[in-house]
Amino acid sequence: MRRVIFNQKGGVGKSTITCNLAAISAAEGKKTLVIDLDPQGNSTQYISGAEAIDLTPTVYNFFQDLLTFSFYPTSIEDCIHQTPFPNLAILPANPLLNDIQSKLESRYKMYKLRDALDNLQGYEDVYIDTPPALNFYTRSALIASSSCLIPFDCDDFSRKALYTLIENVYEIQNDHNPVLEIEGIIVNNFQPRANLPRQIVTELIDEGLPVIDAFLSTSVKIRESHEQKKPMIVMAPKHKLTLEYQELYRKLNSTGKNKERKQGFDIEELFLND
Predict the structure, then answer these.
(1) Domains identified in the chain, total number
(2) Mean pLDDT, the chain, as a whole number?
């Protein structure tokens, strides 16, 4: 399964969600790959423990060689690095991705990532972290994936941006990748006792949007996780937020996925009875 985690709004937890879901997949014994297409390299730092610029080769080398017509281009396999965690590998980002984006776009290289991943062997799950923009790298990720997960913060600005985001994903589906689906909206930094977040989520559900009924709460523990460069399943396996991530992972990988998920669920029942 290839999943792209995408939102055009920054600060909604794309990298954190990407790495924690991937870490749970790896802990379940699946060979798992994280692809970091964000030049900031947050996912790279989080699970490799290294700055993006310190790892080589990176996904930048893969894309750069598409522009140089090299007889011996850098393969995507050459750019993958093992992380300190069993079964978990990283295709790291690099800040230089910004420098070649316009050239890649003008030469219409959006299908190259998909082609490379189609030929990549040995990984059961692939999670792709994207920049907070609908640019060349995000489009490449959406074209290369079968599933899109949308992190969502419960505020009015995020809600207004959500509809445009969904339209953009469906446009990619119609024009470039008919197998792409929005697998679900991940409610992040949820505060169950605050009225506005509960109201917004209820309204999204009433509109028929695919909100996943496994919400991620706010916790300072996630900052410690970033600082220690350890996903929650490694750093604090019994923490409430870790259990929420495991429930999210279970929902995503249950038989039937969205079609069999409980609809119109009671938010109070889900959060306030613990």
Answers:
(1) 1
(2) 90
